[in-house]
Amino acid sequence: MSEIDETILDSNQISSTDKAGRPIPVTIPIALAPGVTVVYTTRLGGLSTGDFGNLNLGGKSGDDPEAVLSNRIALAEAVGARLSLVSQVHSGRAVDVDEAFEINTPFGFDVSGTRTGATAAEATGEPTEPTMPAEASAEATDAAPHVVEADGQVTAQTGVALGMFAADCLPVLFADPVSGVIGAAHCGRRGLERGVIQSTVDLMAAKGAKPENIVATLGPCICGDCYEVGDEIADTFVKRFPLTKTATRFGGAGIDIAEAARIDLAFAGVHRIVDSVPRIHAATEYLEEDAELAELCRTDGEGPAELSERIAAIRHSMCTLENPLWYSHRRAAKAGKRHEGRLLALIVRH
Ligand SMILES: [Zn+2]
């Protein structure tokens, strides 16, 4: 009897780790195409603390590298794939990770947030500075991490999860189930302006994908009602992406980056868009009772202390600023914070 009581007590504890202290990432999977899964990570189920709590996967904003590394290892195990991460720089550049993945670090091309990255940061004082590229030899693998700066990735391999960090920017995930080529793009305002969607689709096509076969989905991002940028930036953006200027709920001019992405997807010939919203919406409803999320809301200072109050205020469940499930740079900044965590949007073919 007491054993059963203990079990029940255990399951009710606010814990984002298992009994051995390993993180248990809370993720939202979406079946994008036959054999292809998209996974969105949340703030839940990791070892990060404070402003980064709990499942921060980004290594550039100052979180404890040990926590980030543990979170990434647990995520790779949960997804059942190797993670391919790149050093994102708001560019229009996409890379074919198949050209170099085998010789690389366990996480691809972004060593920030790993022990290696921490050492490199200490040495150079610049965590994002590319270090010496690794040569194609087995010895180089551990000695010289190969950092690649890009905002789009493609692969034709199975078991490699392409990941894009975000905390308001829009991740877009692509799959051509016929050729087996998958892709991921990090679409912030500047990346969109620089054509990251077109360059990702072009690179997929260079590997045998056909735009008409590509299925795409848009991940969580800050919505047009919340992304206030001011008239000057919005007027420039709207010249490139018609009808994307918004009037935000904060009173100033804003932009709708998801709408801009849809425009460029259409220009790139990608017309099969799978909506991630219903799945995210269902997950959000379910998490109304989540003890870990409730604790984050009580302690993060980024909105009302009561989770139910935050959930009730959500008008767009995909919006990173509105939904406490996600990390949001803008929400953290509004709360007076200087840094915040990053989610990962992943795509993998098994
Ligand atoms: Zn919003």
Automatic annotation (TrEMBL):
Role noted for this protein: Purine nucleoside enzyme that catalyzes the phosphorolysis of adenosine and inosine nucleosides, yielding D-ribose 1-phosphate and the respective free bases, adenine and hypoxanthine. Also catalyzes the phosphorolysis of S-methyl-5'-thioadenosine into adenine and S-methyl-5-thio-alpha-D-ribose 1-phosphate. Also has adenosine deaminase activity.
Name assigned to this protein: Copper oxidase
Family: Belongs to the purine nucleoside phosphorylase YfiH/LACC1 family.
Gene Ontology MF annotations: copper ion binding; hydrolase activity; S-methyl-5-thioadenosine phosphorylase activity
Pfam families: Cu-oxidase_4
Catalytic reaction(s) noted: adenosine + H2O + H(+) = inosine + NH4(+); adenosine + phosphate = alpha-D-ribose 1-phosphate + adenine; S-methyl-5'-thioadenosine + phosphate = 5-(methylsulfanyl)-alpha-D-ribose 1-phosphate + adenine; inosine + phosphate = alpha-D-ribose 1-phosphate + hypoxanthine
Domain of life of the source: Bacteria
Keyword annotations from UniProtKB, A to Z: Copper, Hydrolase, Metal-binding, Transferase, Zinc
